[in-house]
Write a structure and sequence with these properties.
Largest sheet: 6 strands, antiparallel
Strand order of the largest sheet: 7-8-9-10-15-12
Number of helices: 1
Helix content: under 10%
Oligomer: single chain
Length: 272
């Protein structure tokens, strides 16, 4: 997902492909993970590899789901490692929808990596990218019993990079800041910040996240609205007011209002 090729572009990579090839020796448990650049600056990253055989703990952490910008369930990875270059279980991703337009991109996909749990869990991720503006992510967890769900956002190790992108999560949980690592080259690691949103979901549920690139002279403000079905949000940014409707099932609806008049609406386009 990219809104331009200029030095100030916003960009997101969504991993919804195969776990790897052959024995998947170099794969990571990064099903449905994202990497993000905001205003031309690398912000949310895959922390890298660091080591293969120097430390089992570091090897497993750097390739685990907890080290990627994705969802973990009950502190488990979507794919579970075995040896340094092998896996006990492998998550299978499936792409459900991909719409690419001039004004927006929309993608949805899911994986079966947590169906191995005693109470099988399915994770689905949907992303709407409003080009030149922001991303909206809905993570949906389907289960019968209670599970702890964590969503991680790993920032690059460059000082102050977290000021480039505001991360707002909406759900019955809490957001915590932690210290982690980024490995820019083999054998080395640097301290870096990670933001996690943790929630306990009983019988499944969903978490909606806004990724808001910061703009000079404009401050984003997001609030959730009451609705009879699904989720609804209002986003203020400078002189605009956006309304986002996310039904429990079916197509999303996004509308922008400027000076009391509807200037844009993507409701019909999102039904493809």
């Amino acid at each position: 997902m990219r809104d331009s090729w200029t030095p100030e572009a916003n960009y997101l990579l969504f991993d919804c492909g195969p776990h790897g090839s052959l024995a998947c020796g170099h794969a990571h448990a990064d099903a449905l993970a994202i990497d993000v650049a905001a205003n031309g600056r690398t912000v949310l990253v895959d922390p890298g590899t660091c080591t293969y055989t120097g430390s089992k703990d570091l090897r497993d952490w750097f390739r685990g789901s907890d080290a990627h910008n994705t969802v973990t369930v009950d502190d488990e990875s979507s794919s579970s490692p075995n040896g340094a270059f092998s896996w006990k279980t492998i998550a299978r991703c499936s792409l459900e929808q991909w719409i690419a337009k001039g004004r927006f991109d929309f993608v949805s996909g899911q994986h079966d990596g947590f169906t191995r749990l005693a109470d099988p869990v399915t994770v689905k991720r949907e992303i709407l990218f409003l080009k030149g503006d922001y991303w909206i992510i809905r993570d949906t967890v389907a289960a019968i019993r209670e599970h702890r769900v964590d969503i991680s956002f790993h920032f690059d190790s460059e000082p102050g990079v977290e000021q480039t992108l505001e991360v707002l999560c909406f759900g019955n949980g809490r957001k915590v800041e932690e210290e982690a690592f980024v490995s820019h080259c083999y054998g080395q690691k640097e301290p870096a910040k990670v933001l996690r949103f943790s929630a306990t979901l009983n019988g499944g549920g969903e978490i909606v996240t806004f990724l808001l690139p910061q703009k000079s002279g404009a401050q984003w403000d997001v609030k959730e609205l009451e609705t009879n079905e699904g989720r609804a949000f209002e986003v203020h940014g400078g002189n605009s007011r956006d309304t986002v409707m996310i039904p429990a099932s079916g197509a999303w609806c996004w509308t922008r209002i400027i000076a009391g008049e509807v200037s844009e609406s993507l409701c019909a386009a999102l039904t493809e």
